[in-house]
Specification:
The protein has 325 residues and is α/β, with parallel strands linked by helices. It has two domains: 182 residues, Medium-chain alcohol dehydrogenases, catalytic domain (Quinone Oxidoreductase, Chain A, domain 1), CATH 3.90.180.10; 124 residues, NAD(P)-binding Rossmann-like Domain (Rossmann fold). The protein is built from ten helices and 17 strands. Strand 11, helix 5 and strand 12 form a beta-alpha-beta unit. Helix 3 crosses helix 4. Bound molecules: NADP nicotinamide-adenine-dinucleotide phosphate.
């Protein structure tokens, strides 16, 4: 098969297009003929060697294609060996493309539980863009966030890849959404997806501005992909909750303990999601026939290095997708 593989970790030139052996398919696994793969920031960390594995390795967590044994159109669930507990992944949990060959290839082998039907309304590129960001957003909002119709939710960093899924899913679930962003474009994009209002997190008083934009009310739920716990807590109404799954703005947080417990607050961690979370997300998407993931750039598989450069340069909007045809 044709694939992009890493023979060493490092810069963009380590992403080498080449012929590679077809994947071995153990019992209980299935082979998927990939039509498209999509990038996540996590792929850059894999390429740089943050998750060391025996090389060569095909990176890539996200993909969509045709299951060879049944001919079904499928999307790949990128969480391997989540296990039986919904509360948290088990000890064997890892992401496809970290140590097991991933989706930058014409073929990928995955456990059977890691393929689910492709939403019919999505193109191959859109379906490939869905898995990691989509399941992360769905579990953050519903599995961990417990979002209910009519609740008021604040989503931090609206311009981010995962945030576009958060806004669309929360809107469909009947939430009233406020966002923060560094740019008016980020706010406008979120409003187009269903948010009611947005404020700039570059303004020091943004937590108060966010409450004012929410009719002066605190939020039931704040989704924090960036690591702003103290500010996030300050925007909650009593009994509210923060869901955290990223730390690109800060790795550490300092919070005042007394207001935390008097406020009856929760801070909940989440990461990606199980195949059960994924199936629940597909159920939601079924009820969103007009929705599409935002695909920003489509490149042929062999240009994986250019695709990584786009992510590392920043400022792109929408998912970066590689096609195998
Ligand atoms: N744990 C998991 O399973 C998991 C899965 C996926 C992603 N993540 C993490 O989630 C985060 C977002 O991922 P992504 O793929 O959406 O990344 P991304 O596309 O690079 O988006 C990051 C966004 O964060 C916002 N941001 C940056 N600094 C901020 C700040 N100081 N305050 C508020 N917002 C800020 C920006 O929003 P604006 O453009 O609007 O300014 C930016 O667009 C990353 O930290 C990523 O590692 C975790």
């Amino acid at each position: 098969m044709h694939a992009v593989r890493l023979h060493e970790y490092g810069g963009l030139d380590t992403l080498r297009p080449e012929e590679a052996p077809d994947p071995v398919v153990p019992p209980g696994w299935v082979l998927v003929e990939l039509r498209a793969a999509a990038l996540n920031w996590h792929d850059c960390l894999v390429r740089r060697g943050q998750y060391p594995a025996p090389l060569p390795l095909v990176p890539g967590a996200d993909g969509a294609g045709v299951r060879r044994d049944t001919g079904e159109d499928v999307v790949i669930v990128p969480s391997l060996w989540w296990g039986d507990r919904d509360a948290a992944p088990g000890p064997r949990f890892e992401i496809l493309g970290d140590r097991v060959d991933g989706t930058y290839a014409e073929l990928v082998a995955v456990p059977e539980e890691n393929v689910l039907p492709k939403p019919a309304q999505l193109s191959w590129e859109e379906a490939a863009a869905l898995p990691l960001a989509g399941v992360t957003a769905h579990r953050a909002l519903f599995g961990r966030g417990g979002l209910r119709p009519g609740e008021r939710v604040l989503i931090l960093g609206a311009g981010g890849g995962v945030a576009t899924f958060l806004v669309a899913f929360a809107h469909r679930a009947g939430a009233r959404i406020t966002v923060t962003s560094s740019s008016q474009g980020g706010i406008d994009g979120a409003v187009a997806l269903g948010a009611t209002a947005g404020v700039s997190y570059r303004d020091a008083g943004w937590p108060q501005a966010a409450r004012e934009a929410n009719d002066g009310e605190g939020f039931d739920l704040v989704i924090d992909p960036v690591g702003q716990w103290a500010d996030a807590l300050s925007t909650l109404r009593p009994g509210g909750r923060v869901v955290s799954f990223g730390a690109n703005a800060a790795e550490q947080a300092e919070i005042a303990i007394r207001p935390f417990y008097f406020g009856q607050f929760d801070i909940r961690g989440t990461t990606m999601g199980s195949h059960r979370d994924f199936a629940a997300m597909l159920g939601l998407i079924d009820r969103m026939p007009d929705w599409r993931p935002v695909v920003g750039t489509v490149l042929p598989l062999d240009r994986a290095a250019d695709a990584h450069r786009l992510l590392e340069d920043g400022g792109h909007r929408g998912k970066v997708v590689l096609t195998t045809r």
